[in-house]
Amino acid sequence: MKLLSKILLSSALAMTLANATPHTLDNMHTDVGFSVKHLMITNVKGNFTDYEGKIDFDYKTKTFNALEAKIKATSVNTGIEKRDNHLRSDDFFAATKYPEITFKMKSYKAEADEGVMTGDLTIRGITKEVELDVEDIATIKDLDGNNRVGFTLEGKINRMDFDLKWNKALEFGGVAVSETVKLIIEVQAVEK
């Protein structure tokens, strides 16, 4: 009976992986963005401009079997050079010592055209498990006949968990930069 169970489990896993197809990011149509509250009153938005990723996506079930990403910390961009240089410094990303931010999916729970992705996020050499909401999953065949998938990843992290601790207290209470960082990642990937 145990042998039969193992064979059935192996067959099911093989069929699941057979339906998954590898994809690469279309960097021209992907945005790795974030937003953080500044001076307790406005959101400062930014993104990273240098990244790569691999995705195994199953078109039949609209589920993810794998997602891995590497982001160059030096590519942080908020549109203001002085702030970007500060973010690259030891006060935040310490980009010279820790040049890459990585994410590796551990599990995916599907809910229709949405889901929740759990994975390990590493910033400044510190790895924490995070949950990202996956929304707006859509597929299409592009103008060249390639299969594409698009989706949005959203979540929140506490930057203090990753030793991004710089801050200043404000005279009338509060701090210069919120501890909570919103992640907003718009992805388009093309089947290899």
TrEMBL record:
Pfam families for this protein: YceI
Domain Lipid/polyisoprenoid-binding YceI-like: 22-190
Keyword Signal among UniProt keywords: yes
Entry keyword Signal: yes
Regions annotated as coiled coil: none
Entry keyword set: Signal
InterPro entries registered for this protein in UniProt: Lipid/polyisoprenoid-bd_YceI, TTHA0802/YceI-like_sf
First and last residue of the signal peptide: 1-20
Protein name per UniProt: Polyisoprenoid-binding protein
Lineage of source species: Bacteria, Pseudomonadati, Campylobacterota, Epsilonproteobacteria, Campylobacterales
